[in-house]
Amino acid sequence: MYQDLEGKVVLITGAATGIGKAMAIRFAEEKAKVVINFHSEDQKEEAVVKEIKEMGGEVTKVQGDVTREDDVKKIVSHAVNTFGSLDVMINNAGIENEVPSEDLSLDDWNKVISTNLTGSFLGCREAINYMLDHNIKGSIINMSSVHQMIPWPHFVHYASSKGGIKLMTETLALEYAPKGIRVNNIGPGAIDTPINAEKFSDPELKKGVVDLIPMGYIGKPEEIAAAAAWLASSESSYVTGITLYADGGMTKYPGFQAGRG
Fold first, then answer.
1. What are phi and psi of 256, to 5 degrees?
2. Structural domain harbouring 210
């Protein structure tokens, strides 16, 4: 646990399920004030709010589409108006869909780029503006993927968005380091989330994924949340501009694990 996170205001986009939900619960456990953003009401966000309140945590929710500039401004304003500040911004909202590149429509390309890359940029920009205006040495965390590094056929729009997030994170980290604003990136590998539930329910497909992970198991959302808590805390006070891969070693060329090659 990180005592310095107590009372901090943490805004997480796309926090109704999966990794976002796990981060919301983890920061509530750290006694931070948690702001949950969700795209559309389907009661999943209510379940997260209820769980955090039952823990005795402070939480609020706010609807908003991260691809819309006015919505992102509204999301940040809601955090500030509710809890009085913004100390940690986590740009977690993201989407993916599988399409062979020759069949990928411009509409599908734009949807993924707009959500994953543009949405993260807007979140970074609004958080940075607030932190600069209020002299807050805050922490911004972007959610990328191992596929900012590993090519992924049939997901060229997704991989491109995550590659963009990597250099966006590094550029912003360099630009705002003198102001004490840290900007970092998390690159999850294969994680057991609702978006992967169908794939992992097939034993053969699941084994194919596990074979790509040197540590030999699918990661849990809570393991990504732990990385986020560290990056948000003062324990990582000298860390900015990195991608923290939480991937069980997936980015380490697992085909060579047994000395092959």
1. -95, 5
2. 3-247
Q: What are phi and psi of 143, to 5 degrees?
A: -105, 110
How far is C-alpha 94 from the geometric centre of its chain's CA atoms? 8
Q: Kindly state whether residue 89 falls inside one of the protein's structural domains.
A: yes
CA 48 to the chain's CA centroid: 17
Per-residue pLDDT reduced to its tens digit, 25-61: 999 999 999 999 999 878 799 999 999 999 999 999 9
Structure letter (DSSP) for residue 117: I
Domain assignment of residue 257, yes or no: no
**Residue 46 domain-assigned (yes or no):** yes
Note the residue count of the chain: 261
Lookup: tokens for 34: 């948690």
Signed CA dihedral, 151, 22, 134, 85: sign only: positive
In whole angstroms, what is the distance from residue 115 CA to residue 99 CA? 17
Closest residue by Cα to residue 75 from 12, 141, 136, 25 = 12
Given the structure tokens 């604003």, which residue do they identify?
181
Tokens 């646990």 sit at which residue?
Answer: 1
- Residues annotated as part of the active site: 158
pLDDT one-digit tens code per residue, 215-243: 999 999 999 999 999 999 999 999 999 99
